[in-house]
Design a protein that fits this description.
The protein is mostly beta strands. The protein has one helix at residues 5-18; strands at 34-35, 38-44, 47-49, 52-56, 60-65, 71-75, 83-85, 90-94, 99-110, 113-122, 128-132, 137-138, 141-145, 149-154, 160-170, 176-182, 187-191, 196-204, 211-219. The structure holds copper (II) ion.
Length: 222
């Protein structure tokens, strides 16, 4: 990562004007969404949105170039997927092998720098997970099938409160839950039984209270 600092700083200067503000406290920009059975990732000038998304393996991911410039989807390693897209073009691929697929645009980024993104394809047996850190929840865009769980792990040293809208279902009962509280180091999972888009806020307890946000798309894929 250190090696990338100089380039990252240089690219960052002109990105400020163009990049969406993904760090805002109540910002759900770049919501995960489904289009014709594919999970959509928008390509703008010069970013991918959502930047990181977790999907069930086998689900199609569709990149849409909604920017004005030409961009490309280039894997950090290998050539198992990838495309160059003019403005308005799209590219769809299904990640049928579970794994983490890191990619970037060679024109406006580098691996892990500036215009880059990640698709996490989960095995069918694998519960979707999100890690809560002080300044982020990652991945913060998750697609699950109806009936699946999302498990949050609290890696901070303070209590975190995850509140979602609409309510989901608790992991071990049929009770609808809107808020789940995680003490430091704990994890908690919630089951999503109805298709839809669930937004959530992760609020930390304590004086330096901070809110991170995320989106879960529950879909009837399969
Ligand atoms: Cu680009």
């Amino acid at each position: 990562m250190k090696i990338g600092w100089a380039l990252g700083a240089a690219v960052g200067v002109f990105l400020v004007a163009n990049a969406p503000m993904n760090s805002g406290a109540s910002d759900y920009q770049g919501e995960a969404r489904i289009d014709n059975g594919a999970v959509v990732v928008d390509i703008g000038d010069n970013y991918f949105s959502p930047k990181t998304i977790s999907v069930p393996a086998g689900v199609k991911v569709k990149w849409n170039n909604v920017g004005r410039s030409t961009h490309n989807v280039t894997p950090n390693s290998g050539k198992s997927f990838g495309a160059s897209l003019l403005a308005g073009e799209s590219y769809t691929v299904a990640f049928s092998t579970p794994g983490t697929y890191a990619y970037y645009c060679t024109l406006h980024g580098a691996p892990g720098i500036a215009q880059y993104g990640t698709v996490i394809a989960r095995a069918a047996s694998e519960t979707a997970k999100a890690t809560i850190k002080t300044k982020s929840v990652s991945p913060n865009r998750t697609v699950v099938s109806v009936g699946e769980y999302l498990e949050w792990s609290n890696k901070t040293k303070i209590q975190q409160r995850v509140s979602f809208t609409p309510a989901a279902q608790s992991a071990d009962s049929d009770l609808a839950v809107r808020t789940t509280v995680l003490v430091a180091g704990e994890s908690s999972k919630v089951r999503f039984t109805d298709a839809g888009t669930y937004k959530y806020r992760v609020k930390s307890a304590g004086t330096k209270s901070r809110t991170n946000t995320g989106v879960v798309v529950v879909t009837a894929i399969d």
